[in-house]
Specification:
single chain; 249 residues; alpha+beta; Endonuclease, Chain A; seven-stranded mixed β-sheet; two-stranded antiparallel ribbon
């Protein structure tokens, strides 16, 4: 209650109120002949000048506030543009499954999986949530796996059988076998709506992945936005491996 009363007192324009009281007192004094009419006019002119100065001051403050608001709006726009144009989006552990599902569901055309770990597909739930989801996407027409030679046994004894059980198994090409010593793995393909490339990257090394026996599991993923220049380099690396033009490490 006291705070409300205090806010009402602060909201009163005391200088205006004082001017009105002073003008009323001057008119009373003139009415009773205590001051001359000329004196009253002088007081009224002075009060009018004070009120004009107050209005000018308020206008200046309003203009300053408007400038500050414009600056804040511009800063917000700049921040939004910077956020909107970031090259990489970090995907945290709790969002890994939903992020991969969203990525897989919006792919189209040809998809390349660089440094695919066939051994991780031994777990049925992992296969279902990753490779099978890409296979089941009706907009995907072919899938190419670029794998290290050490993954060949897992492919031939386990993963190939799981792929062959899929209705659209024909989409999956015979893997390209090479020597890959890198811990980086990525999937790259066109986005269904934009028709521009996008990629999902995993780094299978600490601190981005947790060490396991025998395999590591990703803690974080990195989604490369379709405007990023990194995609060109990634596509070049994948193409060089797929063409058998060299060993990637």
């Amino acid at each position: 209650m006291r705070r409300a009363s205090l806010r009402r007192l602060i909201a009163i324009e005391w200088d205006t109120l004082a001017g009105i009281i002073a003008a009323f007192v001057a008119m009373l004094l003139s009415l009773f002949g205590l001051v001359s009419e000329l004196t009253v006019r002088g007081i009224l002119l002075l009060l009018a000048a004070l009120i004009l100065l107050r209005e000018l001051r308020n206008d200046t403050r309003a203009a300053t506030h408007a400038e500050h608001l414009d600056c804040m709006r511009q800063d917000i726009r700049d921040i939004r543009e910077k956020i909107g144009t970031t090259d990489l989006v970090v995907i945290t552990p709790l969002a890994l499954r939903s992020a991969f599902q969203d990525f897989a569901d919006h792919l189209s055309g040809h998809v390349t999986w660089y440094n695919a770990c066939c051994r991780m597909f031994h777990r049925r739930e992992v296969f279902e949530a990753t490779l099978r989801r890409v296979i089941a996407n009706p907009d995907v027409v072919s899938i190419e796996l670029l794998c290290d030679e050490r993954e060949r046994h897992a492919w031939e004894t386990d993963v190939l059988l799981q792929v062959q059980r899929c209705a659209d198994a024909w989409k999956v090409r015979q893997p390209v076998w090479c020597s890959l010593s890198t811990s980086v793995s990525f999937r790259i393909g066109d986005h269904r709506e934009s028709r521009r490339p996008q990629a999902l990257v995993a780094v299978m090394d600490e601190p981005f992945a947790s060490r396991g026996d025998p395999l590591s599991a990703p803690r974080y993923l990195f989604r490369v936005q379709n405007h990023s220049d990194i995609l060109t380099a990634m596509a070049t690396v994948a193409h060089r491996v797929a063409s058998g033009c060299g060993v990637e490490g």
